[in-house]
Specification:
binds magnesium ion; binds adenosine-5'-diphosphate; 25% strand; 7 helices; 4-stranded antiparallel beta sheet
């Protein structure tokens, strides 16, 4: 199935009573105790908490990278986990329905910037020329189009991070999970990234979770989940208009 041709996502993200314990017995760590979270299609929410509070664990569970211990997770209209995985093909789930932005960019060193971004849409069946022009559009939106033919090792840390964001957006996944995406960026670029994520959310009805403790972007969220000791508490954010902050 070609995800580029599927209609926009419906239903967003729903997490109910999620628990994750690493290890067993004396060395067991309860990283998530009872996490509840909801993200509507078209919404960008912040996930904020001290180091070791379970932020990455939560994203990895939701992204089907690690298996939770118990609870329930729903993506779109489909329950993907209910005290056990309820979808058969976790690889297809990760590839077609979830866009990841990691702290480290993990670009493929022997592909140029354009092909790093175009690769997933190509794998999903989009003709190469279309995949490349989509990649170039995203690189332009992220202001790295001048590096389109470069190899990842020739880019600065900030440029690499913007390329990895373009890559996460390339398949138009219904869900984007970003772990500290703006950490290596200056204030203006960090806000530019948030502007693109918000545009993407609005236009493609993507549900987006951004893990951060970046003071530059926290005021942009309308809703924030604070995580502490493996439990989440929801709070209203400032929801500052990005158009305004970009010109400030
Ligand atoms: N693979 C693992 N094995 C054992 N414990 C882990 C593992 N990954 C994370 N933890 C523990 O789970 C807790 C939450 O970690 P993590 O989700 O990485 O937090 P954060 O991303 O908020 O810093 C921490 O106590 C951490 O040490
Ligand atoms: Mg982390």
């Amino acid at each position: 199935m070609n995800p580029m041709n599927t209609p926009p996502a419906q239903g967003g993200i729903l997490i109910e009573g999620l628990r994750k314990v690493y290890g067993h017995g004396d060395t067991a760590v309860e990283a998530l105790k009872h996490v509840n979270m909801q993200v509507a299609p078209g919404e960008v929410v912040g996930l904020v908490g001290p180091s070791g509070s379970g932020k990455s664990t939560l994203l990895k569970c939701l992204g089907a990278i690690i298996e939770p211990t118990s609870g329930k997770m729903t993506l779109g209209n489909e329950v993907i986990y209910d005290n056990g995985w309820t979808v058969k093909d976790l690889r297809a789930l990760r590839r077609d329905r979830i866009g990841f932005v990691f702290q480290a960019p993990y670009l493929i060193p022997f592909l140029d910037v354009t092909d790093n971004v175009a690769l997933l849409p190509m794998l999903a069946g989009l003709p190469n020329a279309q995949a490349r022009s989509r990649a170039l559009e995203l690189l332009t939106a992220l202001d790295v189009q001048h590096r389109a033919r470069a190899e990842p090792s020739q880019l600065s840390g900030g440029e690499q991070q913007r390329v990895s964001i373009a890559r996460a957006l390339a398949n138009k996944p219904p869900v984007i999970l970003a772990d500290e995406p703006t950490a290596p960026l200056d204030s203006e670029r960090a806000l530019a990234v948030m502007r693109i994520l918000n545009q993407m959310a609005r236009q493609a009805q993507t549900a987006i979770i951004v893990v951060t403790h970046d003071e530059k972007i926290i005021p942009t969220f309308r809703r924030i989940y604070h995580i502490r000791d493996g439990q989440t508490v929801e709070e209203a954010g400032e929801g500052r208009a990005l158009e305004d902050s970009a010109h400030a």
